[in-house]
Design brief:
2 domains; 6 helices; elongated
Amino acid sequence: MNDFRDYVEEQQHLCYGVELGGTPAVVGSLARQYDFLLETIDTYQEINQPQLNDNQQSLIIWMQENECETNDPLESISDLFLNGTPSKYFLDLPLSCLEAAYQSLNNQQKMELVSEYLKQYSEQEE
């Protein structure tokens, strides 16, 4: 979807920068149509973007900080599972903040968390 949005923006800039041989009203009408299309794309992306809860957001921050040590996004995902799972040997210990946040998530929320983390990581790499 981002590639399509980039293409629409490029076409919009061409509309402003190229003499179309039309009246200003025609050029303005095209520009408004591109504006509307870009707004529609943005709205679509917002609606289809999962909204992360506080625990998910906190865990993403933890994963990003953890990743700085190794620069490997998969290690952060693995470490989240290992550090977020309470020890089966010390059942009497209270959960750490990390464990409590991770344990509060259902599977769908865990997938959203990992997806958003990888998306952010990918955007940083570009």
